Write a sequence for this structure.
């Protein structure tokens, strides 16, 4: 693997990757109602990722490498923007957050309590929202 493959990751690992993150694929608009409902009992996280963007891949890899939550503390949803554009648009509409990529949203009690995009995602302390 070349220097850029190591930096930006490899598609052969799968976009949601073989990491310790228990990703839940977010691929239908109907799931957003479930996310909102479940957010009353534990935080829900949506990671919006563009599979063709090097910056998005780099941010995803940084997120994976710094992830340290225990199982069950949050539900983490992985949204492939290119494959699920309608879902991405619905996330922006339902939660009132302008679309960006990559983007991370944390939802508690039905509302977004934190969101950020690009490199600022790595500054989010997930433990603070547990």
């Amino acid at each position: 693997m070349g220097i850029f493959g190591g930096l930006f990751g490899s598609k052969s690992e799968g976009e949601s990757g073989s990491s310790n993150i228990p990703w839940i694929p977010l691929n239908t608009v109907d799931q957003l109602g479930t996310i909102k409902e479940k957010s009353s009992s534990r935080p829900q996280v949506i990671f919006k990722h563009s599979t063709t963007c090097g910056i998005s891949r780099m941010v995803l890899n940084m997120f994976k490498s710094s992830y340290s939550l225990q199982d069950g503390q949050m539900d983490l949803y992985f949204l492939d923007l290119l494959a699920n554009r309608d879902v991405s648009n619905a996330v922006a509409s339902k939660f009132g957050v302008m679309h960006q990529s990559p983007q991370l949203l944390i939802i508690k009690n039905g509302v977004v309590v934190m969101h950020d995009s690009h490199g600022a995602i790595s500054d989010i302390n997930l433990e603070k929202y547990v």
Notes: Confidence is low (pLDDT under 50) at residues 1-14.
